Amino acid sequence: MIDSEISALDAREAAFDEEYETMLRGVPSEPGHRVLDVGCGRGFFTRLLSGLNPSATILGVDTDVNALENAHSVCVNQLGRDVAFLNASAYRMPIPPEFFDLVFFAYSLETLSNHERLFKEMNRVLKPGGRLVILEDDGMHRMVLPLDPRDEGIVQQALATAFERRSAGIDGLCFSRYAYRILKRNGWRNPKRYSFGFDRLSPLSRIDRRFFDIALTELWSLVGDHTPEHERARLKSMLVPGGRDYIVDRPEFSATLFTSLIMAKKDGSNFSNAASCSAIDRVPMKPR
To answer: What is this structure's pTM?
Structure first.
């Protein structure tokens, strides 16, 4: 059985937590920095960022109150200390200008699709010389699965059709491939992208198996109706848990998950001292 309360993103975070922690060690966060985690959700990356830089002042922002309550509990229980969270829109936050040293996003740009407005707000709250750090994947190429090239082509075409009908736009669904253009267009300096592949081979751990079961179920929910009718039953048996030819059950199963770490800098070399630390003290530790 698949836990319907666990999203593919939650399952991915659990399966690849060590890889994510290693990646974030390369993020330029110094002791005492103020860090904003935008679209923090259930607090997975907020916890990692706080754990890697215990003296940083970190604020997680999201519009989902239930997710923020979970994030607060996660940080208290796993870090043994409080972290501030704010229930607010990323497009307009009650934050002083030039307040943060680092702004971080993880897998939230599919829903935050008005990039011009979004990055204008990030530019407002980030100090001159501060860093924008984005962890994103490419919706068309999240995983390499052990499919025959012909079957992979059918799935990719169905995925493209599904994406054309979604509201986020291709820039949001495939942000990592357009990151350089989007960031340059919105005034960010020297954007750089670093790509990573996370491999998994049979036999899978329970946590890894759960991730692939949920991720492939989600994939089929996207592509199933857009696959050729005469191929549908065969492909479904390979991509849905419990199917006769389910690929994860193969003894030689292997897969690679791809993600990108994108960093850019705000113009300006001098940090502003205009915003006081007392501003973050006014942020509620729990969403109201």
So the answer is: 0.86
